[in-house]
Amino acid sequence: MTVTTCFDTAARLGYEGVEIMITNRAETQDVDFIRSEVQRTGLPVLSLHAPTLLFMPRVMTSDHWEKLRITCRIAAQVGARSVVLHPPFRWQGDYARNFVTGVREISEETGITLAVENMYPWRAGIREVQVYLPDWNPIGYDYDAVTFDFSHAATAGMNALEAVKELFGRLHHIHLTDGAGSLKDEHLVPGRGHMPVAEALQYLAKENWSGDVVVEVNTRFTTSSRKREEMLIESLEFAKRHLGLRD
């Protein structure tokens, strides 16, 4: 979707805000444009997703630390309180070696929460390949804030409910989705996979958790815009039901 379509769809379906993935598309980096969409629709930007994916090494800059600083500056200017980012790849030099402390320093420098997302091991045949440093799994590392993605957890074979409980004190952000345990990152509509997504949301509600829940489902293979919207409505209703937010 374009940024405008994202805002329009979210507003029409009853969402309370959006997360914007920064890519090489100029509109995703255009502060004035994003502000105008916020004003037009009345929806805030809850978070930005930094361009830290494998196919985005040179988006904005090839300096990985500066990439985070720029993303945080954009976040502050558009009113987002957090930036989601993936852990680095092991070949990314100083950025990978000093990631944990560097993330904390940039967060303190910019005033924006950097929430590191759980990923999953890559697999070559029956072998797992460690491509992320310090690890694909944020548990056990000294991050101040974490994003938890249920599809990534499914691909990794994690016990998602226990992970959410263990990360609770640092859990800042949820990517609401699901997975059936495939080796592929599926991003199913929540409730259509095998993960304890409902139980995890109910646990967070019971514990008065105050982070953001952002729907991140794969709709690119749907046959029509109507089916896409049905998936997004179903995801929103799932969140409201299990977080106890129904009107």
From TrEMBL:
Keyword Repressor: no
Keywords: Carbohydrate metabolism, Isomerase
InterPro entries per the UniProt record, alphabetical: IolE/XylAMocC-like, Xyl_isomerase-like_sf, Xyl_isomerase-like_TIM-brl
A Pfam family recorded for this sequence: AP_endonuc_2
Ranges of residues in domain Xylose isomerase-like TIM barrel: 7-241
SUPFAM superfamilies linked to this entry: Xylose isomerase-like (SSF51658)
Tree of life domain: Bacteria
The keyword Isomerase is annotated on this UniProt entry: yes
MF GO annotations: isomerase activity
Entry-linked PANTHER family: HYDROXYPYRUVATE ISOMERASE (PTHR12110), PTHR12110:SF47
Designated name of the protein: Sugar phosphate isomerase
Annotated source species: Brevibacterium luteolum
